[in-house]
Amino acid sequence: MVKHPAIFLDRDGTIIVDNGHINILSNIEFYAYTFKALRNLQEHFLLFIITNQPGVSKRLISENEVKEVNRHIVGELKTRGITIFDVFYCPHKSEENCECKKPKPYFIHHAAGLYNIDLTKSFMVGDHPSDIQCGINAGVTPIYLLSGHGRKHRDELNADLKICKDLSEASKYILSAYKSNSI
Predict the structure, then answer these.
(1) Which residues participate in catalysis according to the annotation?
(2) Are 66 and 91 in contact (CB under 8 A)?
(3) What whole-number distance in Å separates Cα of residue 120 and Cα of residue 29?
């Protein structure tokens, strides 16, 4: 059975503007480059969203609101010809020490089992150090973005890794690496 490469995307600060704990659909704001970047990536990769949503445990948003926001994002992307194969979210606070909160690789490993993913040819893209560590922990190539909270947390990075301005730049880097067979 053929294994598929995948892109695991953080949500807030990566594909949409980080507007805090979003519970109203009108607060969802896509970056202008998101659609083109994802359309280009999906030509060679399965696309997934993995997001930490601790606002659920903190009672700032409900699980139903998170699910509705995620459905809306996936629906908006679909109307633009982009398929998100699955969305995974962790509703826990760090103190809860759950198995699903990034930087733990639970959702990447779960997706790999469900969708027959080749982790050695896959990427984790996000704007937080936890996204990068999640990718490293799962055995996928991490790419750090300076969009969202990226600039604020850049000094917290320990790994030697690829840093891109935003998802647009990251998509060009990934596709170049893919086409040159350097991944």
Answers:
(1) 10, 12
(2) yes
(3) 32
Nearest C-alpha neighbor of 82 from the set 43, 112, 108: 43
Q: Cβ of 179: how many Cβ atoms within 10 Å?
A: 10
Is residue 121 over pLDDT 80?
yes
User: In sequence order, what E strands does the chain have?
Assistant: 6-9, 46-52, 84-90, 123-126, 141-145, 162-164
For residue range 58-74, list pLDDT tens digits in order.
Answer: 999 999 999 999 999 99
Q: Where are the domains of the chain?
A: 6-179
User: 43, 4 in Cβ contact below 8 A?
Assistant: no
Q: Is the pTM of this model over 0.85?
A: yes
CATH superfamily for 6-179 is HAD superfamily/HAD-like (3.40.50.1000)
Please report, as a single letter, which amino acid is at residue 3: K
